[in-house]
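Entry 14. Two folds queued back to back today. First construct below, sequence then structure tokens.
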Amino acid sequence: MAQRLVSVWQPFFLGSESPQAALDAAIELEELGYSRIWFSAGFGETIPRRFRELLDGTTRIGVATGISTVWHTSPATAAAFAEEAERAHPGRFLLGLGASHAVLVEGDGTDYRKPYSKMVGYLDELDALGLAPERRVLAALGPRMLELSRDRSAGAHPYFTTAEHTAEARTAIGPGRLLAPEVAVVVDPDAASARATARQYTSGYLTLPNYTNNLRRFGWTDDDFADGGSDRLVDAVIPWGTPEQVAAGLEKHYRAGADEVAIQVLNGGDATEFPAAAFRALAKELIAGG
């Protein structure tokens, strides 16, 4: 079996007001054996300095934007940041790009039209600037964006999906591309409280057509999307339970073809607190020597 990568996707790294707290968390994750840290680049014109601070303060762990939106950060700005990071820390920074969502983009006054064409044009500009395809990945859900991630990048970084989608994505991009889905989890063995925590997360995402349209392709319906998600949908999207049970849920994505799973530990929506204990427990289950 090929080596699998176990990564972290956590809003804490952008939400923390303390650069030192963010760095301390990154150092611990590196020591535990996690491969990469993913977090959003936000909606500004530049990629936050926090990505570079984590690279500068660690020695091995990768850092990736999950995602940088193509509507806000220009190709020139993104390429310059990626090139600077590559010079300082070869092979450790990965530029994750995504088309975001109409409600978020248009809230800033931008006209959200033809997101696929927008992504193609953005990649064309990155090519012209010399940023190699293997140094970027796309937040791909549907068939066309998955094919684009196969043809124009190192691979795909799907978000808010099921293991069934991971299997479809692997088929779409083929064996030679990185497949690194984000998977949110709740480390809590109590069904009622675990699902309540999960629904704090799912309730917002289930209002976004990009995600619900993708889930519909796999047979989910409006009934599943109501009230923060049916139990069946919550359980399919968000592994919960003991660390062993969560690890078993994540294993489904590896078996479906993921090279790397970016674990987001849900802790009630508090982006200022890092769920260190959960990541320690999951490392023992998922990482050799963790």
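Second construct, same run, same settings:
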Amino acid sequence: MNEKAFDALAHGQRRKILFSLLDHNPQDPSNLSNVPWDIPERDEAMIEKRHVHLPKLVDYGYIEWDREAAVITKGPEFDEIRPLLEFLNERDD
């Protein structure tokens, strides 16, 4: 794995977004479901997601984000990080 994969997984919000896309594509980023853990969001967490975490994952190519439709989908580089996500997801069970 490369440095951007580890950076993408370094924060819980980014992990939650990526895990949500393993089985459910697309996702509404304000209401992520089917993730290994549940993190209730506060207003500042939603702001941080929209201004830090989602843009970072877009830059890495792991997601595509349609802000107007409020939908995220797997990006062109998602398959690069998929094996690591699946490995971590299996270990969480």
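Quick look at the second one. The longest helix spans residues 43-60. Residues 34-39 have pLDDT under 50 and may be disordered.
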